[in-house]
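Dear colleague,

As promised, here are the two records you asked about, laid out in our usual form so they can be pasted straight into your sheet.

NAME FIELD: protein one
SEQUENCE, THEN STRUCTURE:
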Amino acid sequence: MTMHTFTLVLDRSPTDDEVDALFAAGCDDAAFGVDGGLPVAEFDRQAATIADAIATAVRAVESVGLTALRLIDQDLVTLADIAERVGQSRESIRRYVTGERGPGGFPPPVNPARDGALFYRWSEVVPWVSRHLGISVPQVDPSLVVANLVLQARQHRGHVPHMAALSDLLVA
């Protein structure tokens, strides 16, 4: 068994009685609190895989009436985050993004039409940085990325006509 550390964002803070029920449901490896104004459960869970750790934690949290909304997302990054992670200046990274520097083809932002800060997926940036800059940087575990997407999709499943067609894509 491996120790896996992750943070779930909850729909609300648990009551004292719910915290007792959470510990009884197997969440004695979690700390419940608030992070950046968000109610969270921070887990240090032993499991064979990160996917198993997240799935069992979500089931336990939801068994007492709370909802796990998503994981704290370490995959979404800004130019400043990218610069810090690769050890370059923000301006240097901005020039790679615009094609003023390097080979071009930098991964696109996830919110290109938005005014203000642009966000990128670290899981898309890492291969580009490795291939074009020769810099080895830590990746986000793809299981965390997928788990986060699954948790978010679960919130919308009741509002999406023909959800089965989309969920079939996941298993295809």
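NAME FIELD: protein two
SEQUENCE, THEN STRUCTURE:
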Amino acid sequence: MYAFPDWRAAPAENVPAALADWLCETGSLTERLIASGRLFAVEVLAQGVEPAWPDEAAALGLTAGAPALAREVRLTLDGAPFVYARSLCRADSPAWAGVLARGSRSLGLTLFGEPGIARHPLNFCAGLAAQSALLARARAALPGAGDWLHARRSLFGQPDDALLVHEVFHPLLAEVTPS
């Protein structure tokens, strides 16, 4: 049985400085990845209705196991995966269902390109992939990432109808710099 991440207001103390720079980015992660000068792409891994994990349900104001519309992707540069993302909202969300049904287009272009979409503060976690469902899925999606991973998440939109976005970073992202 997996535990669920202990989300905190600051990154873990053991995160390398270059990776912390990516984790703490408050702007569009998509735009920053594109600015690396490498070929950026979004690969959809899964999409559909599934039960929200307890920590996700709490963040979205749902009961644990309530149906949620989820989208899982990996963000790649030159074909190599660097970020695993899991985004979800209420299954009946009028605001976010269409946003999640975007195929291989990045959510970041909408979340940071549309006026009026509020982003709530970032939260962070780090841990062993074997101990967290989120980190285990990320490890499977990010070959060579190792067992210890760093992640962040934030809510977008209104508290009564929010989109929760998780992003787990491959340690090698620390070596990528915008051009």
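A couple of things worth noting about protein two: The longest helix spans residues 133-141. The chain has a mean pLDDT of 92.

Best,
R.
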